[in-house]
């Protein structure tokens, strides 16, 4: 927020899903949608858009193979997209 000019846009592309699995297997602690929005708004941003897109996994499965896709936990996560604006 400190370096973004007024009217500037902050995009966040994140993952959500099986929280315990992500923490245990990747060391990543996903934040809830509410936590992300609250943190952005506390930093002075206005929430513009929050999207939980229906993701296509076909490309990832084609690249890694179904067995590896599941073995690495990609079937347990989903994308999250946030768009915030600095007033």
Sheet with the most strands, sense and barrel status: 3 strands, antiparallel
Q: How many DSSP-defined strands? A: 3
Radius of gyration: 16 Å
| Fraction in beta strands | 25-35%
One letter per element, helices H and strands E, the order comes to: EHHEHHE
Distance between the termini: 10 Å
Query: Helical percent range?
Result: 25-40%
What is the overall shape? Answer: elongated
In the sheet with the most strands, the strands line up as 1-3-2
Oligomer: single chain
Residue stretches low in confidence (pLDDT < 50, at least 5 long) are none
Q: What would the average pLDDT be, to the nearest integer? A: 90
User: Structural class given helices, strands, pairing?
Assistant: alpha+beta
**Helix count, DSSP H or I runs of 4 or more residues:** 4
Describe the protein.
This protein has 87 residues and is an alpha+beta fold. The protein has 4 helices and 3 strands, in the order βααβααβ. It has helices spanning 19-26, 33-42, 58-64, 66-71; strands spanning 9-17, 46-51, 77-85. The chain has a 3-stranded antiparallel β-sheet with strand order 1-3-2. The longest helix has 10 residues, at 33-42. The radius of gyration is 16 Å and the shape is elongated. It starts with 8 loop residues before the first strand and ends with a strand.
């Amino acid at each position: 927020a400190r370096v973004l000019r007024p009217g500037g846009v902050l995009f966040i592309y994140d993952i959500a899903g099986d929280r315990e699995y992500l923490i245990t297997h990747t060391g990543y602690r996903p934040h809830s949608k509410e936590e992300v929005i609250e943190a952005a708004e506390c930093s002075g941003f206005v929430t513009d858009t929050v999207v939980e897109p229906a993701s296509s996994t076909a490309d990832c499965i084609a690249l890694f193979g179904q067995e590896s896709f599941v073995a690495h936990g990609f079937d347990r996560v989903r994308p999250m997209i946030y768009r915030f604006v600095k007033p």
